[in-house]
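Project standup — Tuesday

K.O.: blocked on the structure for the chain from last sprint. Re-posting the sequence here as requested.
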Amino acid sequence: MSDDRPTSRNPGKKSFLERLGGAFTGEPKDREELLAIVQEAHQNEILDDDSLRIMQGAMNVSDLHVRDIMIPRSQMVSLEHDETIKEWTAKVVSSGHSRFPVLGESNDEVIGVLLAKDLLSLGLNADFNEEEMQKALKSIVRSVTFVPEAKRVNVLLRDFRRNRSHMAIVVDEYRGISGLVTIEDVLEEIVGEIEDEHDDEAIANIEQDGNGGYIVQALTPIDDFNDHFDTSFSDEEFDTIGGVIMHNFGCVPKRDDTIELDDLKIRVTTADNRRVKAFEIKTESSD
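H.V.: unblocked you, prediction finished:
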């Protein structure tokens, strides 16, 4: 019986499907070859944009260390062990986070982690007087996990899953507190930024702040920014005004960092350790 299957016109060259199958049979030989196969799958419309980004993110995570994705100490929202329940509640409500490091006698002593839901349950207990409430605060503080700055992010994700934890405190080589890292920080490196219920999807790109200035979202298209402020920033290298401003800073700026461009006074209002999200813009006429 003859074999009617088509033969390759170039016996020395593997087809795309042969190379893709090789990924599950010991090939490719290195990550560069695997990445090339994935990119070719995208070009052949076997993978969509989101799938490609996730696969590339998953491969890139193994090159990252915790220090690359952590929230630095200066941007941590922490609770003091000797604060009242009212002070804790105010910080929890204003920040919108779900987990908070609890500091001990010094800023380099983290004694545990508070979950907002635990504080809510405690606050609903009307039978406690103030003294009993303060004692109860200590009982709801959970144990904390410490990880070194140099830990690889893929290993951290595995530990998060195995221990069913969502946050860890990052320490330097002298056991000083460097920052914190969450499972969301890891996942965002793979799938992109994760919007939560505290992110305002309807927020305008440019809106007045009531003080003569404007709050401008970093993702505002450069054309829209130029039209509004009568500027002429180029869109050849960057698509958004955030890219232009960060390029001129020369680094990822922190909250309240300022810069002047084209007679505009620019102050960072919202940022994390990896990106800027919003700016305050003031013109000469608004001073």
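K.O.: great, moving the ticket to review. The longest helix spans residues 31-43. The two ends are 88 Å apart (CA to CA).
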